[in-house]
Q: What sequence folds into this?
């Protein structure tokens, strides 16, 4: 089952503009689909004019059509929401199970290809990567979609691809992270994963020409964005500064009850020391949602209400658990020699998880944290060699 690449929805209905920035604005861009199909999609906030009883598409400003921009691309086991501004996916959401990870799909028969469902002038291109020094990095990994050659080939479509640093990241730490996520399917009914690029700012160095008092305020309040651009102007593809994953697992108890757990991670698009603990890159889901500008799994992960998982008799806030695991990872990292070259996850975390703010806030979630449910331990370096498999190529 599932959606095939040939069943992509028309550009007229799904290619919508209005992206506000890299990975931001996904909520506004799919409201037409929500209007027509009432479907649930990560990051969707339905904007309607029900009060006036009018259809938003009848607005006089849209007399000559909706501007064409970011595009939703459904494939068999994953969906890509492609950002035509940065020429990267906003996000890719996939469903992984033991069945999808097994089969006769073989990456040696797969070739990277441009997505011809996206207009030529809006999509990323094979030539953008050639000679760039960056790998063509999968968002939905090929290894998780081996059901058959067709499902594996779909993952090599460029609407599922972002530029990634090769040595020390795509071919190393990120590959181990993907393997860890896939391995969770052995003990779960299914896994839903949202992966995407991030473009995170850094503090801006002020001008030396400013007076000292103004300089101090500028240094403390201003931010700037720095990232590489590939291709030929004006059709440039942005190189993400970071990547994120949100992992949601589902297990069924003997009595039929479903148990869920979630974990969210952010990693720099850079060399990561191989002994870095995975917990070093855990972030609270709330913080990630603020950075990406998207709400993940809105039908399941609830901010409010009484549907709260109980752990040891207490209402369980898995974002607080995320901070606990993150602090543990930071402590472990400090004991390693490689910590001297560490790059932090880079997400601004609001320190307001006190008991008082917890009672007053809406952050208590209804599911457990992934590390408490399944542990957060990566496979060893070169894990693919143990099974006789070749290391993944640079894919440049």
A:
């Amino acid at each position: 089952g599932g959606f095939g690449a040939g069943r992509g929805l028309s550009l007229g209905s799904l290619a919508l503009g209005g992206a506000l920035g890299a990975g931001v604005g996904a909520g506004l861009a799919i409201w037409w689909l929500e209007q027509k199909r009432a479907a649930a999609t990560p990051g969707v906030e339905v904007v309607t004019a029900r009060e006036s009883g009018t259809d938003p598409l009848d607005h006089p400003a849209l007399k000559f059509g909706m501007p064409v921009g970011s595009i939703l691309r459904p494939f068999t086991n994953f969906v890509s929401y492609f950002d035509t501004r940065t020429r990267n996916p906003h996000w890719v959401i996939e469903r992984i199970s033991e069945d999808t990870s097994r089969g006769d799909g073989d990456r040696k028969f797969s070739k990277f290809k441009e997505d011809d469902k996206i207009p030529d002038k809006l999509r990323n291109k094979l030539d953008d990567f050639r000679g760039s020094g960056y790998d063509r990095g999968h968002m939905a990994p090929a290894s998780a979609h081996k059901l058959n050659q067709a499902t594996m080939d779909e993952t090599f479509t460029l609407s599922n691809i972002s530029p990634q640093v090769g040595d020390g990241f795509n071919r190393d730490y990120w590959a181990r992270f993907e393997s860890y996520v896939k391995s969770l399917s052995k003990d779960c009914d299914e896994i839903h994963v949202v992966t995407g690029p991030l473009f995170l700012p850094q503090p801006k160095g002020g001008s030396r020409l400013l007076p000292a008092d103004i300089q101090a305020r500028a240094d403390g309040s201003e931010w700037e964005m720095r990232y590489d651009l590939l291709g030929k102007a004006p059709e440039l593809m942005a190189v993400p500064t970071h990547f994120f994953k949100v992992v949601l697992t589902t297990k069924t108890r003997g009595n039929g009850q479903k148990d869920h757990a979630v974990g969210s991670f952010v990693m720099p698009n850079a060399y990561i020391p191989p002994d870095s603990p995975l917990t070093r890159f855990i972030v609270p889901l709330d913080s990630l949602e603020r950075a990406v500008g998207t709400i993940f799994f809105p039908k399941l992960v609830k901010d409010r209400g009484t549907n709260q998982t109980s752990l040891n008799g207490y209402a369980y806030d898995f974002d607080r658990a995320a901070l606990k695991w993150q602090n543990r990872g930071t402590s472990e990292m400090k004991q390693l020699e490689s910590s001297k070259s560490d790059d932090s996850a880079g997400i601004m975390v609001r320190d307001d998880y006190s008991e008082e703010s917890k009672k007053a806030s809406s952050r208590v979630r209804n599911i457990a944290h992934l590390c408490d449910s399944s542990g957060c331990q990566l496979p060893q370096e070169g894990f693919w060699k143990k099974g006789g498999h070749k290391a993944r190529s640079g894919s440049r």
Confidence is low (pLDDT under 50) at residues 1-46, 206-210, 304-316, 351-364. The two ends are 32 Å apart (CA to CA).
